[in-house]
Amino acid sequence: MSSYEDRLKALRAQLLRDRLDGFVVPLTDEHMSEYVGAYAQRLAWLTGFQGSAGSAVVLPEEAAIFVDGRYTLQVREQVDPAHWQYESVPQTSVAAWLGAHAPQGGRIGYDPWLHTRAWVSQATEALAAKGAELVAVDTNPIDRVWPDRPAPSEARLVVHEDRFAGRSAAEKRQAMADWLTGRKADAAVLSALDSIAWTFNIRGKDVERTPVALAYAIVHADATADLYVAPEKMDEAVAKHLGNAVRVHDRAAFAEALGSLSGKTVVADPERAVAAIFEGLETGGAKVLALRDPAVLPKAIKNPVEIAGHKAAQTRDGAALSRFLHWIATEAPKGGLTEMIAADRLEAFRKDTGLLEDLSFDTISGAGPNGAVVHYRVEEKTNRPIETGTLYLVDSGGQYRDGTTDVTRTIAVGTPSEEMKHRFTLVLKGHVALARAVFPKGTRGGQLDALARQFLWAEGLDYAHGTGHGVGSFLSVHEGPQRIATFGGGDEPLQAGMILSNEPGYYKTGEYGIRIENLVLVEERAIEGAEREMLGFETLTFAPIDRNLISVPILTGEERAWIDAYHAKVLEVVGPQLEGGALDWLRAACAPL
């Protein structure tokens, strides 16, 4: 299995033994997670693709890999075109491709623990047009041919204290029980890892960069719950924290437990619960209500303790990032820096806080053309020097007990070109427009997306990713349901207490990338004479925006005022944490335009 070609051959041989004419390989786990443990990295093992979103289909004579616009460049660098066709989402889909390429009368396999019921329905319908069928497998064929597949993590659970959570687990279960009662339901199945972590005020280390544990849960209308987790993850402190109202079982018992809900009305989330869960409930005789996981919205609307914790995390994280920006401003012009050196140094500054639990994702450290790869991941073979006359894009974040951070800065190394400055300023104008937005309650993120793109659009430019995603509280750096995007979501009404990113960008293939990202808090806005309840954003991230890249003449007076006020706030928040040369640098970096 030394090459990806060998792995593809081995999978095809296994499919032949399994009497299958194809197989679908998504990048997810049994919990529909975006970021998954090493044991579930089947797509990466098979193809070499290292992104965080994608799927593949393997047929006897052809194979295709499906990614969205964030990974258009990356997939071509990591996946061999001799064996794989590149397909773009949403222009096409796995189901549509199968409808066109599956063999007549073929049997296409899928793992029911890795797909939603909606996907199964779409793929079944698409295959029916070819007289082909979708076949659920009992054992994933990749697992049969992956000889050194890692075992799931055995890391122990840890208690997420109420002083960080703001609400006890018992309060959360009671609120969930009241929600169930209002819908005349007996129980809700929780399968999303961050929902379980939030509901029970527990955290784990089973997924790199995301503090969750592999588990399932069933919450009942009497506010009791059943938690399914590997026994080795439990200790006395966690058991005491969970209390008698939470019954703990082996995670391996979950599938069989679904059958014990016979005669009950059970909520399962069609977006977050896999097809196998629906099948298990219905086969067992439960009445299933396909409703959103009741933890999703309250988890997204941060309580006052979580908001205060997030602000504290942002304050220390902003100081760490500012130390890094001072360091790179000093060292990069001397030469000798690489993307990996810079990423490691930034992590060291965060560790120096003494409170860093982990990074919130692998740092995107992109110099020159690598900065144009939206979700670039530096490794030895791609590691570029940070050279004078180029742009350096660094997108990074930290996991702290009191908050999760995510921030992007684009830095000019040496003197930037006029084109770089102009396009950076277009991105900045969009960032400022979104940051200053005031909008009525009920507004969806998708309605705001154009504010950030308008200046790029006016010059025939754009970017192929959403403008904003939700962020968890010492949880996932990408959290729903809120988004600022016109595709792939963005239909959730924004509510006070939600935290999102504000991250417009621009990417010139083969040359450079630009992104400016801060996190923002949705807050209520009191406007004299207003006839509607209004909302706006409070910017939470504090780190200088590179003044050397700003073309001041194309800014309006209001835009300049916002940038100057933002930098004044950065100096106020971060300045007291710096000293010496770093403080002098910060004062210059935050000087009025």
UniProtKB/TrEMBL annotation:
Alphabetically, the GO molecular function entries are:
metal ion binding; metalloaminopeptidase activity
CDD domains in the cross-refs: APP
Which key words tag this protein in UniProt?
Aminopeptidase, Hydrolase, Metal-binding, Protease
Peptidase M24 domain: residues covered: 310-524
Q: Which residues form the Peptidase M24 C-terminal domain?
A: 533-593
The keyword Amino-acid biosynthesis is assigned to this record: no
* Database matches in Pfam families: Creatinase_N, Creatinase_N_2, Peptidase_M24, Peptidase_M24_C
According to the entry, every stretch annotated as the Creatinase N-terminal domain falls at 7-139
Keyword Ion transport assigned:
no
Q: Name one GO cellular component term.
A: cytoplasm
* Similarity comment text for this entry: Belongs to the peptidase M24B family.
- Protein name, as recorded: X-Pro aminopeptidase
The organism of origin for this protein: Sphingobium ummariense RL-3
What does UniProt list as this organism's lineage? Bacteria, Pseudomonadati, Pseudomonadota, Alphaproteobacteria, Sphingomonadales
